[in-house]
Design brief:
2 copies of one chain form a homodimer.
Chain A lengths: L1 H7 L2 H22 L5 H39 L3 H40 L3 H36 L7 H40 L11 H40 L16 H25 L10 H30 L5 H25 L4 H9 L4 H14 L2 H21 L6 H17 L2 H23 L4 H50 L12 H42 L14 H33 L1 H37 L9 H37 L1 H6 L11
Chain lengths: 726, 726
């Protein structure tokens, strides 16, 4: 029986390979499309070059970081047999995340001109190109994540006689670290270019957006890809890996306590049927999600410009429905084979999936101009930029309330459902926490579609830019704009989803962190670890943790400020010094590469400090006292979740308030209200695309780093000052 | 011996009376000064009338709230003998807070014109009038707080055979509730008037600040008093009462465990010498602080306009030094009389006092234009209001880092010092927590001076307004402006102090909450309560708690937005409909009362929802599960502290960046940079004067309400769903 069950684990990498094949097919299809006129291809080529240059420069500087951390892992982790494997897993996690980002960018920066070209024939074709390009990224992100985790998990299961589950943690930490730099660096890159190009081009020189005379436009277009394709992809890749890891770690921990339905024998070297299934099931849930995503792909199709949004939503709903069916089937099968009432776990996954959809919808409510909040910001723009800003900030803050409640309700449901499995035993709470892990996984099982819908955005946006710069007839631009408008909303929804998934994943990883720490300390004979909220050191940790999102927000906003200033100086210089550029003389071209270089260098320089702090602060706190660290993690989680929602939604709402005015209300383009709304939009740029997403990653990175370093903290008896003053 | 010690407690109300006498003397002195010309007296009269009208309207609507809550307390608290006393204490706390606010406003709104008149002769006299008016408020706030707490504590000690320490909690809850409404209502009042008057007057009509033609100016001047005198006074009155209460509750709890140096006999009905001293000592610390404040008063005196700031600082430093000397003396005496090494407690108080000063200094660094952060905001204003806003937001976020670290270091030092007293016993941690309570008290012992320095600000500001409106020669305005500029910085410093004191007081009150809860549950035979951070319900609580400051921020910002809009409409109407008003024709006067009414009504209406939520949410959560409530309190504390610092400092920095540009840099008044800075200043107005301070109160209110309702939660066995799922 065990053997058969063991072989089930191999389904996961197999499905991951199917996902990769599907992604390859999509990519090949996209690349086969007509890339348009030479002028369009030239423009797309500039974006490709800029994107590639940034990624390669980024990866180069990350190599040093990865090597240093890998050495650190090998040296610092006490178990020498496991430590180099952890470091190896760390490297593979990083490499797969990089690969996903690279492939996604490669396709996206080639799909843009093909989307423009397809738009010359109609919307349906353009939608198909853009969406399939996005789904390439989506499938690659999910499939590579599943593939890596599954292989390491199988490695662990095969070597289960010598179980070192923290090795798999290393894989997630690798994905996390890359995600951190991709998000922070990408966020700084895109907003430095965007803010700089807008302030000089639109505000000072009075030329339209995406005007070919503006030297910052190519950097801006590259930035869209860097931020929303590579950045968001790495972000969800990390959440996905984390959500897969957390329930597995928790299952192993319950099994190893040797006192539950999950346990085989007391040494935990042989798992019971339920124990094995509990470890493998997350992989199968995720595999089911990938299959559902491939099915959902087919549902996205429309010929009607006004129905693009519906078509994209249909894809998401079909995927979610199919995913839940597969998960329900898996839980039913588990209940048949095993000894526990595993159908409860289905409720956990459903809670997570529903919460993800609900938070996405709430994000749409607060950031789309079809609803009251954005309309109110547009209205407030009439009395100037101060009232526009106040209304935007207050909308952002208010928009945190409902998602926070949805999140806590989902967590409560998942916990209660999970604990029903162990009801009556002393392990009820642990089963409940395992349920929280499954709910994170439920939410993230549709990752491929979420990333796909999000990565579709910059392709549509770029397609519009290329149409503008190549001087195509206005109806083409109108079609790409229809795609783009929807892309803005879906991007906001994806951000909401990303934040929610980050929070619930971090929560599950936090549980894994505590569980491993507790087990380790009691194995050392140090007794059970109870992290008491009323311990002043725990509260000190919570305060420091709550401070981190503010610190991160300040660092990343400041970075955008500085980089945008350099961009402004350069664009002004070109307008002044390149003769005939502003007049639009034939044959006079801006030096777009200079701007690309500024964004690239700024991003690379500015991402280092936040990145390094996020990795090292938890280690330092843990070395001091795991009580402080545990408080810290909860502080980062709670405050970071809210800050991230606040910043993302405020930014999205400002953006769409401006777009709403551009549809003609309150005086339309060029009115005083529009000018005020442009100010709000500019403030919102770093809010929603740099700081918010960076905090998002921060939440996960600090948790997974803490999880990986658990063996070190255990070897220090819980930290140097642990228990010294109480 | 016990008898003698018991009598020591009476020192506190006696010193409080001395403080009141000193305040009365100061008030009489201020009122004796020359109130100036009839025109000036008329203007001051308008402000007096507006301020009085608001306070009376506010108090009227609070009567309903106080009565409802008092009935609720009587009904909901299970111990019927104690519940009506708790309700009575609640009412007295509210009444004394109201009295303090009323007296302070009475003097401040009469000191303004007297300060203007004194300024005709020189700065020294004007400073003396303004500062003595502020100190009247400061002394009244501290003295009434000490008086009330001391009498209730003595009542408790006399009835110690039947100890119901939660009765005294009711007093603090009364102060808290009034503070909440005073802060929220006052903040909405002042900023609705300020934003409205500025946007129409300065921006649209192009008339200077405080111009007598502007119908909103009187409301604006009233608002300064309502916010910075009555609001800040009530805020610190609450912190002061809370900081006094927390260590006393903790001391009683340690004594009642019947197992420490604090305990007399095992029933806890007779305290040991150390136990009695531990309960009484907070009162004596506070009494020492009041004496030190009276001594410090004499140190504030200067004839040199450039040295006003130094003179005010001297007052603070002298007070702090004398306070520490008295506290050290008290601890030494305790160590002589008792059996414990009480000198360690001196370290706790010193840590709190030093942290308060340090956070004040840090606030000054981030908000005064003599330092880099504000200069950078001014610089960023040159590229427009978007970059000004981004820089301001990021400065605000960055400014949270150092205060958070100072706070946690102070808490750690206080805890470690305190736990040394109980070193080696199992009560070390409880002594440590008592030490945290003493550090809060150390910080707040100088409350009278802090309130005094803060309440001096609006007097100076009003004095300038009166000089302007009465058409006095410009050198008078220059002198009052010198006072006012310093007042802006000291107000920012006081805000920093208020936030820090709120956080540490809430922390101490949280410890008291847990201690009482734990003792109560185990007395019920329900075992010890351990609030485990890794319990999902605790984390759910933390997330809901962290959400509250965002919710509060959104509600209060939205309230200002709505009220300011009404104000804008009214001022525009008057400019349009009152003939000759804008032209400045002789005899044509604006209808200032209409604007006063708008601010008053808006404040009264909008303060209700936030106020009611802050009181009822903790009760509801506690009825559900004390684990959720405990997490909630820590979430509010951590996230609220940071949000409050962020908002207060961002607002202060924007304000002073504008003032910096007005000194002539970056083009000075009327330049593009100045316009951008005005936008930042306007955004900062509700940030620093409404939302930030409201969150400040929120932190304390939720904690003290939870503390008061502990007996209810105990009677429910820790909440309806407590322990059901784990």
């Amino acid at each position: 029986m065990d053997q058969i069950l063991g072989w089930l684990a191999w389904i996961a990498p197999a499905v991951a390979l199917i996902g990769l094949v599907a992604a390859a097919w999509l990519a090949a299809w996209v690349l086969k499309q007509d890339p348009g006129t030479p002028k369009m291809q030239h423009l797309s080529g500039l974006i490709q070059k800029g994107g590639k240059a940034f990624l390669i420069a980024e990866y180069k500087s990350l190599i040093i970081f990865v090597v240093v951390v890998a050495i650190l892992l090998t040296v610092a982790l006490p178990n020498k047999e496991a430590s180099w494997l952890t470091a190896l897993a760390f490297v593979t996690g990083g490499v797969l995340s990089v690969a996903a980002g690279y492939v996604g960018m490669y396709v996206a920066t080639r799909a843009n001109t093909r989307t423009t070209q397809a738009a010359t024939k109609g919307i349906a074709g353009a939608l198909r190109v853009a969406y399939r390009s996005g789904m390439t990224m989506g499938l690659v992100v999910a499939a590579l994540g599943l593939f890596g985790i599954a292989l390491w998990a199988i490695f662990f299961l095969i070597n289960a006689k010598h179980p070192e589950p923290e090795i798999v943690d290393g894989f997630v930490m690798g994905a996390s670290s890359i995600a951190l730099f991709a998000r922070v660096g990408g966020g700084i890159y895109t907003k430095a270019a965007d803010v700089g190009a807008d302030l000089v081009g639109k505000v000072e020189a009075g030329i339209p957006e995406d005007d070919p005379r503006n030297p910052g436009v190519i950097a801006d277009n590259v930035g869209d890809n860097v931020g929303d394709v590579a950045g968001m992809g790495a972000d969800l890749n990390e959440s996905y890996a984390g959500a897969l890891l957390a329930p597995m770690v928790l299952a192993v921990a319950i099994a190893l306590t040797g006192n539950s339905a999950f346990s085989g024998d007391v040494n935990g070297t042989v798992f019971s049927v339920d124990g094995l299934l509990a470890i493998i099931m997350p992989l199968l849930f995720a595999a089911g999600g990938i299959i559902a995503c491939i099915i959902g792909l087919a549902a996205v199709n429309t010929n009607d410009g006004s129905k693009i949004h519906k078509a994209l939503n249909r894809g998401t709903y079909v995927t979610s429905g199919v995913t839940m069916l597969i998960i329900a089937g898996l839980c039913y099968a588990w209940q048949m084979v095993g000894d526990i009432s595993a159908m409860w776990f289905c409720g956990c996954a459903a809670a997570g999936l529903a919460a993800g959809l609900a938070i996405g919808k709430l994000t749409e409510y607060y950031t789309s101009y079809h609803y009251k909040p954005v309309k109110k910001i547009a209205e407030a723009s009439q009395t100037g930029s101060a009232t526009n800003t106040i209304e935007g900030l207050s909308t952002g803050m208010l928009s945190t309330v409902a998602p926070a409640l949805v999140l806590v309700v989902a967590v409560a449901i998942a916990f209660i459902c999970g604990s029903q499995v162990g009801a009556g035993t002393e392990l009820a709470a642990q089963f409940g926490v395992y349920g929280i892990g499954l709910s994170a996984l439920g939410m993230l099982s549709t990752t491929a579609v979420t990333v796909g819908v999000d990565a579709y955005g910059p392709v549509a946006d770029n397609a519009g830019g290329i149409a503008e710069m190549a001087g195509l007839p206005p109806e083409i631009r109108e079609r790409t704009d229809a795609l783009d408008t929807v892309g803005n909303t879906t991007a906001a929804v994806a951000k909401g989803f990303a934040v929610a998934s980050a929070a619930i994943t971090a929560l599950a990883l936090f549980a894994a962190f505590y569980t491993n720490l507790d087990r380790g300390l009691s194995l050392q004979g140090l007794g059970n670890l109870e992290i008491i909220l009323t311990d002043p050191f725990v509260i000190i940790g919570v305060i420091i943790g709550a401070m981190m999102p503010f610190f991160f927000g300040a660092m990343t906003m400041g970075a955008v400020s500085r980089a945008a200033n350099k961009m402004i100086v350069e664009i002004r210089r070109q307008f002044r010094e390149i003769k005939g550029l502003l007049a639009g003389e034939e044959g006079v071209e801006p030096d777009t590469e200079a701007c690309v270089t500024i964004s690239t260098n700024a991003a690379l320089r500015e991402m280092l400090l936040p990145g390094i702090l996020a990795v090292f602060i938890p280690v330092v706190l843990g070395i001091l006292d795991v009580n402080i660290l545990a408080g810290f993690l909860v502080g980062v989680l709670a405050c970071g979740f809210l800050m991230s929602v606040y910043m993302a939604n405020a930014g999205g709402a400002w953006d769409n308030a401006k777009k709403y005015i551009e549809t003609g209300v309150h005086g339309g383009k060029g009115s005083e209200a529009h000018k005020a709304a442009v100010v709000g939009d500019t403030i919102g740029d770093p809010y929603k695309d740099t700081s918010g997403p960076s905090i998002n990653i921060l939440i996960k990175v600090v948790t997974v780093v803490s999880l990986v370093f658990v063996p070190l903290f255990i070897s220090l008896g819980g930290g140097l000052i642990h228990g010294m003053f109480s």
